[in-house]
Design brief:
single chain, mainly beta, 4% helix
């Protein structure tokens, strides 16, 4: 499996990509202002407001515990993962996939430039119909054979759709990346996060 650049069109089955449509060279308010339905001028014509760039979803009303959830914001400081050489290819091993069955989850990088020496990997998988065979212990396991992998840069945030299987955040490069993570949670471990171990690990080519 080899990573490709993260775009909304490729990632659409799994969630939302959030990034500015403006080039880095755009340093003044556009004239004339844009007329698109999802962008309006703001702050006395010194800003553009892009409306509904992603959606937070709370499906905890369907959770077995009936424990209500609240919106939470956490910060993850993610350090570069080790890169391994195998058969002349550099790569990262995907050992675990996780999902948040009742909530979306948005990762927003802090302070990382688009051209930073570090990137992050977005690895996702469709969900199979429920089965009860080993090695899977979670109903509706990930479809590992159809995993997809994307490169993301510091100018891109990503929202995983509710119940989307994904690799825990993986930064690759020379620098740490910090993320604000927005989701719902109710404190019931199995309802907030489910994991499966991949044995053997799946090779992610860089």
């Amino acid at each position: 499996m080899e990573a490709i650049p993260l775009t909304q069109s490729e990632f659409a089955p799994f969630g939302t990509v959030i990034e500015s449509p403006l080039s880095l060279s755009q340093t003044t308010f556009p004239s004339p202002p844009p007329t698109s339905h999802n962008v309006v001028s703001a702050n006395q014509n010194t800003a553009l407001k892009y409306i509904d760039v992603t959606y937070m979803k709370n499906h905890y009303g369907a959770a077995p515990s009936n424990v209500p959830a609240k919106a939470v914001m956490n910060m993850f400081s993610c350090f570069p993962r080790p890169i391994k050489m195998r058969k002349h290819d550099l790569g990262v091993d995907v050992k675990v996939l996780e999902r948040h069955p009742y909530t979306t989850q948005t990762f927003i990088p802090l302070g990382a430039a688009r051209d930073s020496n570090s990137k992050y990997l977005v690895v996702v998988a469709p969900t199979l119909p429920p089965i009860s065979k080993e090695p899977f212990t979670v109903m509706g396991p990930p479809d590992v054979a159809n995993m997809k992998s994307f490169w993301a840069h510091g100018g891109q945030a990503v929202t995983y759709g509710a119940a989307t299987w994904h690799m825990p955040m993986a930064v690759v490069g020379e620098e740490r990346m910090d993320f604000v993570v927005v989701q719902y949670a109710n404190g019931v471990a199995e309802e907030d996060c489910q994991e499966v171990a991949l044995a053997p690990a799946v090779r992610e080519k860089l």
